[in-house]
Amino acid sequence: MSTLPDHGRELVPRPEHTPEALRAALAVVAPGRLAEMQATKDEAFAKAVEWQSLSPVQSWVLRWARDIEIARRPELAARFERAQSRLEDEDPSVGEEALRELSAVLDQAMRAVRG
Questions:
Q1: Residues paired with residue 106 on neighbouring β-strands, in sequence order
Q2: pLDDT per residue over 77-89, tens digit each?
Q3: Largest CB tally within 10 Å, which of 9, 16, 40, 73?
């Protein structure tokens, strides 16, 4: 476990951008999502073959690196869950603010994994 001044406590170190490293990290921070990860991996690899392009695989890696980044950082995960829970609030302004917060969390996580 490492401590970073601007990120706080992390459940696991940021994994390498390989399927094996991402899977190992997900097994710790969100094991309930392993089947989803495998299914989306299978889809990405099938599209890569069909399209003769690595872009589906690259997108898969970035998507899971981002999701793991959120899950491995409790404060970021809490912000994400809070925003998700408020998306369908009866008050449209609450939903709009939740959408802005959700977008901010996703952007922050993506910036972190892209370096």
A1: none
A2: 999 999 999 999 9
A3: 73
